[in-house]
Amino acid sequence: MLAVVLLAGCATSDDGGGAGGRVVYLSAPFEGRAGAYGRAIRDGAELALRHESSADRPRGLRLEPRDDTRGGRWSPVAVAENARAATSESAAVAYVGEFESAATSSSLPITNEARMLQVSPASTAVELVSPFPGSDDVPELVQPTGERTFGRVIPDDEVQAAAGAAWSRRLGARSAVVVSDGSRFGDAVADEFAEEAEGLGIPVDRAGRRVGAAEIARSNPDLVYFGGTPAAALPLLARVAETSKATIMGTDALLLDRGFLRRARSFESRVRLTAAAQDPSQLPPPEGPRFVHRYRAAYDHQPDSYAAYGYESMAVVLDSIERASDPVDRSTILDAFFDTRNRRSVLGTYSIDDLGDTTLNRLAGYRVRDGRPVFDAGLGAP
């Protein structure tokens, strides 16, 4: 039993380990509706492995990409298999993944038990780093050791909601109705949006979960903010568009669902959607445009929004390995990651805070045209 614990905490030289044979696992969806995003994350990470190098970094580190889908959707079985494969390989020193926050909730307990750094390019749920908003405690449901091993390079759901409130003010909203679908995610972003909007001087009606379009119309708001999933959004927002002139705002839960965008075409001109990931066109110079150029040269097409986050997830892992006091020991790599300060990257300059969150608050706002998202504005949280 002792040997197993020691193996989980440190990558050894067995089975190709050591400075010349280390492995970083990557788990993301390569098939199904989210497959394009997952493949972009993988391609970005592979590009980082080629370009984010220095003379001081030992050669021989490789990326091990794993698909986390079964039947076109992320699968708890596939995610667990990927995480266990990573933690049981002595040469593996870090794990990049997942795309979905729910998938991260499945892999993180496994990597946490093994004291392996896990960096997500896309999982934004607050509960991955905190049991509830505002808490500094470790969420032991997903990090059961009580020690933090997870971080991300993308802003969380609360930052996205706050950015939506700031955008609402820029759009000229003088009043807003806030609706949640009752999910944990929906309630979190609705509450944060309402709090930030009120702080910016926008009167907010915090509507109940079962509010109807007619009730919203009677409030006559300039803007309706929806927190929740596409399934709950479509019927309500279609009726809102029929019964009021309000701008309709939601999150990337709606933006990333192409089915929702297609079915919302009758009122798409009224829709504004926030995204935690920056649009490639807004990545800051000089690193951002250089990344876009390299990506196009390598893959012969434009990167999508998540490609840069896959790149930076891998890049910060490589940087953490380089700065670690023992570059084959998982614990020292973890320490180096949480010591990340003022890192210049393709996403902008950021630090990693005590919870594992990025301090970066560069986000994006989109319109919808012909059933497709069109970048409209760079956003930031107040």
Helix/strand-derived category reads alpha/beta
Mean pLDDT: 92
How would a crystallographer describe the biggest sheet? Answer: 7 strands, mixed
How is the CATH topology of the largest domain named? Answer: Rossmann fold
Q: Give me the Rg, rounded.
A: 21 Å
Order of helices and strands: HEHEEEHEHEEHEHEHEHEHHEHHHEE
Shape: globular
Number of domains: 2
Distance between the amino and carboxyl termini = 50 Å
User: How much helix, percentage-wise, in residues?
Assistant: 25-40%
Spell out the CATH superfamily of the largest domain.
Answer: Response regulator
Q: Strand order, main sheet: write it out.
A: 9-8-10-11-12-13-14
Task: List the topology elements.
Layout (H helix, E strand, L loop, with lengths): L1 H8 L13 E6 L6 H17 L10 E6 L1 E2 L2 E2 L1 H13 L3 E5 L4 H13 L3 E4 L29 E3 L4 H14 L5 E5 L3 H16 L4 E3 L6 H7 L3 E5 L2 H14 L3 E4 L1 H4 L2 H6 L7 E5 L11 H13 L7 H17 L6 H9 L23 E8 L2 E9 L2
Parallel strand pairs: 1-2, 1-5, 5-6, 6-7, 8-9, 8-10, 10-11, 11-12
Antiparallel strand pairs: 3-4, 12-13, 13-14
What are the main properties of this structure?
globular; Rossmann fold; 2 domains; 18% strand; alpha/beta; 13 helices; 5-stranded parallel β-sheet
Q: What report would you give on this structure?
A:
The protein is of the alpha/beta class and 382 residues long. The protein has helices spanning 2-9, 35-51, 76-88, 101-113, 157-170, 184-199, 213-219, 230-243, 252-255, 258-263, 287-299, 307-323, 330-338; strands spanning 23-28, 62-67, 69-70, 73-74, 92-96, 117-120, 150-152, 176-180, 204-206, 223-227, 247-250, 271-275, 362-369, 372-380. The chain has a seven-stranded mixed β-sheet, with helices on both faces. It has a five-stranded parallel β-sheet with strand order 2-1-5-6-7, sandwiched between helices. Strand 1 (23-28), helix 2 (35-51) and strand 2 (62-67) form a beta-alpha-beta unit. The longest helix is centred in the first third of the chain and has 17 residues, at 35-51. The chain is globular, with a radius of gyration of 21 Å.
